[in-house]
Amino acid sequence: MSQQTLFDKVWEKHLIEMEEQQLLFIDLHLIHEVTSPQAFSKLREEGRLVRRPDLTFATADHIVPTGERDNIRDILAKKQIDFLTKNCEEFGITLYDIDHPDNGIVHIIGPELGLTTPGKTIVCGDSHTSTHGAFGSLAFGIGSSEITHVLATQTLPQKKPKTMNIHIDGQLKDYVTSKDIILKIIQEIGTNGGAGHVVEFTGSAVDDMSMEQRMTLCNMIIEAGARAGMIAPDEKTFEYLEGKRFAPRGEAWEEAVAEWKTLKTDPDASYDKTVVIHAYEISPQVTWGTNPSQGTSIEGVVPDPNDLNKGADQDTAKAALKYMDLKPLTKIDDIYVDKVFIGSCTNSRIEDLRVAAEVLRGYQVSSKVEALVVPGSYHIKRRAEEEGLDQIFINAGFDWREPGCSMCPGMNPDMAKPGERIASTSNRNFEGRQGKEARTHLVSPAMAAATAVKGHFIDVRDWTFKEDGEKNATF
Ligand SMILES: CC(C)[C@H](C(=O)O)[C@@H](O)C(=O)O
Ligand code: SF4
């Protein structure tokens, strides 16, 4: 039999038709309040039902207020929430609504409820659906008409994408995380570098990563234009999933694991494209521009656009510096921020909160900074509170919130003011993303915590620990 990649195996297993347009069976359809209303309206218009409500799950996350839960931003937002509730009731779909104990960001709750498992095809009307690929599933974002199609038929016509391997070898330096790696990858291959491809991450650095770190990696590969990201399941994947609510149990679990173990790229299978990254060369990253590829390491400086390739690179860098109000050659650690946001489907899981709390313990947020930490789900919130992380954040001067997308998309009351500069653990730094004229710098949770204390970017690796466990910052 011919040698296949992980992607080929999952794709083939779900193929229903192999004509020009290939038709895939969809194992899991996730839904949120922003992109589903139109799709349900269309369904109603056509007099159709949801084909597999048992494979469809919904949550409210984007417009949800993380302070007072009922402080919904505007009439449109209120309508979206009400519509989601009504649609789920009418079509028999499980909804983790605003106050449900399982509520959270869609890409956080899928894995933590065990809905996301290896080998599944998973779709959602949301670009960061790629997150679920960390479990060896084929997971990607879809548009509104595709949502209708999946609701009505549980299938999706697709053109087969190409494959790309990003091989990350070597060991990560302390306090360097998969967020730094993915920012570096996007800098290297560009915001279009993955276009038309499903990326499989391999290499010793990926093997060493926790499931949460892997999710961050897959979450952001979409910012390099890729269709999806995938990582072959291994013992860590099985350990993460065992006992989760919707994960198989008993004999079914044993059978599932045996099948999941076959989900890896065969030794002689080839990819259409391969990129190699050395993990040990990577430092904590900070973006300076208005797309995720415009970034550099914490030891670096804001580039001089004139030093970049003439043409598009120069033009976009010039426009970005103007919007970001940054001068060429400014040292990254000389950039001061007004706000710090720790949250989003990229970096709001328990390990993200733990590392940020570890950096923060015993310190105070700078008096010039407003800081906000938003767990990705109620499960994470409760877990963090059990561990006392909330107290570390609160004592340091952070606001401790209810779960939701919060300041990531600027679609709920958590917004930055015009001109404000934010160190953010989210995934997009586009113009206006976190509020009109707001300026976003993407960083890891550890970097965000250290920046909150100093008031400007700082290399979190300068945070050292005394033997008695007390903090001793060496800056
Ligand atoms: C609202 C939704 C369509 C959007 C997406 O698809 O990514 C949002 O989640 C985002 O991150 O910008
Ligand atoms: S946290 Fe941000 S990136 Fe993730 S789904 Fe919500 S808005 Fe999109």
From TrEMBL:
It is an enzyme of class 4 (lyase). Pathway: Amino-acid biosynthesis; L-leucine biosynthesis; L-leucine from 3-methyl-2-oxobutanoate: step 2/4. [4Fe-4S] cluster binds at C345, C405, C408. Coiled coil: none annotated. Its cofactor is [4Fe-4S] cluster. Gene3D superfamilies: Aconitase, domain 3. Its EC number is 4.2.1.33. Binds 1 [4Fe-4S] cluster per subunit. Belongs to the aconitase/IPM isomerase family. LeuC type 1 subfamily. Catalyzes the isomerization between 2-isopropylmalate and 3-isopropylmalate, via the formation of 2-isopropylmaleate. Heterodimer of LeuC and LeuD. This is 3-isopropylmalate dehydratase large subunit.
